[in-house]
Amino acid sequence: MSIRTVGVIGLGAMGRPMSRHLATAGYTVVGYDPDAQACRRAAEVGLRPLASPKEVAHESDVVMIVVGFEKQVEAVVFGDDGILAGARPGLVIGLGSTVSPTYARRLAERVDTREIGLLDMPLTRSDRAAEAGTMLVLGGAEPEIFEACRPMLETFATDIVHLGPFGSGQVAKMVNNMILWACMAANDEGLRLGERLGVDQERMREALVLSSATNFALAERADTRPIPWAEKDLTIAQQEADQLNFAIPVTGLIKEAIKEFKARKGYPTPTL
Fold first, then answer.
1. CB-CB neighbours of 110 under 10 Å
2. 29 burial type by CB count under 10 A (0-12 exposed, 13-18 middle, 19+ buried)
3. 9 and 27: one domain?
4. pLDDT value at 272 more than 80
5. Residue 18 has pLDDT above 90, yes or no
């Protein structure tokens, strides 16, 4: 399988820098975003905007989806102007969005994998890592598809892990997010308690990043930026656990703590 043209659907904080890294590495990059400004900004870093996911799919060897929510993935893949409407045999769809493992499984059942390859590639770390090209890809795919796509993934990720078949990456991303939001809630509670006891939060953060309490959310100051996907991520975990009759009581507490945290910070809560 030869990959020369890569399509990117979703040209925001993750998709735009990914496009830049791909173009710098010599790939032809095309893409789509409903936001005209996002398309203009992506064009400035080497991507050629097209009018729809259908057109992107028609011109691409791989199309990577980097949108925020399952309903957007649904429209991008299965809509009248979606990827499948323009796909040629041999196209690989790379699912970089975070969706539930159940949705990933159902998506695979609805795609003719004899004609279309599927690559599960949820992205971790942050938009800063996207800019720097140091993301982690949690991968799931048939081995031959994964290895064919690895050089493409290496343009924007320093760590790429193949965890199993399509959907395996979404399982790992779900677990990653459960732990991430638990850390953020614990960071917030601990720092506020320390402040009430007379220690400056920022001085304490600087010290704790060097301690056994360090974690990604603390080091990246993730609490200082809106976190629109938090409730979605935790709801995914709860729904998956409910299907298995598997208890995850900590996740339920964290979801409520994150809701209170966002309300206190004035961060918006999107409609899921």
1. 10
2. buried
3. yes
4. no
5. yes
Cα→Cα distances 165→139, 157, 168, 205, Å: 8, 20, 6, 39
Number of CB atoms found within 10 A of residue 17's CB: 22
Q: pLDDT, tens digit, for every residue of 22-44?
A: 999 999 999 999 999 999 999 99
Shared-domain flag, residues 161 and 175: no
Rounded to 5 degrees, φ, ψ at 7 are -100, 145
Burial group, residue 37, by CB count within 10 angstroms (0-12, 13-18, 19+)? exposed
pLDDT in tens, 211-248: 999 999 999 999 998 998 899 999 999 999 999 999 99
- Written as one letter, the residue type at 260 is E
Rounded to whole angstroms, the Cα distance separating 235 from 178 reads 10
Q: Are residues 66 and 146 in the same domain?
A: yes
Residue burial 199-219, b: 16+ Cβ < 10 Å; e: rest: eeeeebbeebeeeeeebebbe
> Are the C-beta atoms of 178 and 248 separated by less than 8 Å?
yes
How is the beta sheet containing 62-65 ordered, strand by strand? 47-49, 28-32, 5-9, 62-65, 92-95, 117-120
- Structural domain of 180: 170-265
Element housing 160 (H / E) = strand 157-162
Residues 154 and 185 in one domain: no
Angle at 125 between CA 123 and CA 131, to 5 degrees: 85
Shared domain for 12 and 117, answered yes or no, is yes
> Residues 9, 11, 17, CA angle at the centre, nearest 5°?
115
Please indicate, yes or no, whether residues 145 and 128 belong to a single structural domain of this protein: yes
